[in-house]
Automatic annotation (TrEMBL):
<feature type="modified residue" description="1-thioglycine">
    <location>
        <position position="99"/>
    </location>
</feature>
<dbReference type="InterPro" id="IPR015221">
    <property type="entry name" value="Urm1"/>
</dbReference>
<dbReference type="Pfam" id="PF09138">
    <property type="entry name" value="Urm1"/>
</dbReference>
<protein>
    <recommendedName>
        <fullName>Ubiquitin-related modifier 1 homolog</fullName>
    </recommendedName>
</protein>
<keyword id="KW-0833">Ubl conjugation pathway</keyword>
<keyword id="KW-0819">tRNA processing</keyword>
<comment type="pathway">
    <text>tRNA modification; 5-methoxycarbonylmethyl-2-thiouridine-tRNA biosynthesis.</text>
</comment>
<keyword id="KW-1017">Isopeptide bond</keyword>
<dbReference type="InterPro" id="IPR016155">
    <property type="entry name" value="Mopterin_synth/thiamin_S_b"/>
</dbReference>
<dbReference type="InterPro" id="IPR012675">
    <property type="entry name" value="Beta-grasp_dom_sf"/>
</dbReference>
<feature type="cross-link" description="Glycyl lysine isopeptide (Gly-Lys) (interchain with K-? in acceptor proteins)">
    <location>
        <position position="99"/>
    </location>
</feature>
<keyword id="KW-0963">Cytoplasm</keyword>
<comment type="function">
    <text>Acts as a sulfur carrier required for 2-thiolation of mcm(5)S(2)U at tRNA wobble positions of cytosolic tRNA(Lys), tRNA(Glu) and tRNA(Gln). Serves as sulfur donor in tRNA 2-thiolation reaction by being thiocarboxylated (-COSH) at its C-terminus by the MOCS3/UBA4 homolog. The sulfur is then transferred to tRNA to form 2-thiolation of mcm(5)S(2)U. Also acts as a ubiquitin-like protein (UBL) that is covalently conjugated via an isopeptide bond to lysine residues of target proteins.</text>
</comment>
<comment type="similarity">
    <text>Belongs to the URM1 family.</text>
</comment>
């Protein structure tokens, strides 16, 4: 069964996704539970339209991107190991601003 999620980008991160801030997505069914570690490459490959290197570094988000899971800092939720649940809201906020 597909997994519905809300994925949002703000603080400039939306520029990587064609300036679209909110995405209602359905992740395809897979054998193992979806985790943030499997969500990030999916976002890079399916939502990020330009400069994916500004979204991910290695297997995680780049420094300077704050990640919230259901309005809580992802560090409190287990970061990459958090198992996604139906209708979770994942928000990526860029804290880096040009000068």
């Amino acid at each position: 069964m597909p997994l519905p999620l809300i994925i949002e980008f703000s603080g400039g991160a939306e520029l990587l996704c064609g300036n679209v801030k909110k995405h209602n997505v359905e992740l395809p069914e897979q054998k193992d539970k979806w985790q943030v570690r499997t969500l990030l490459p999916w976002i890079r490959d399916n939502l990020v339209q330009e400069r994916p290197e500004l979204f991910m570094q290695g297997d995680t988000v780049r420094p300077g991107i704050l990640v919230l899971i259901n309005e809580a800092d992802w560090e409190l939720m287990g970061e990459l190991d958090y198992e996604l649940e139906e209708n979770d809201r994942i928000v990526f906020i860029s804290t880096l601003h040009g000068g």
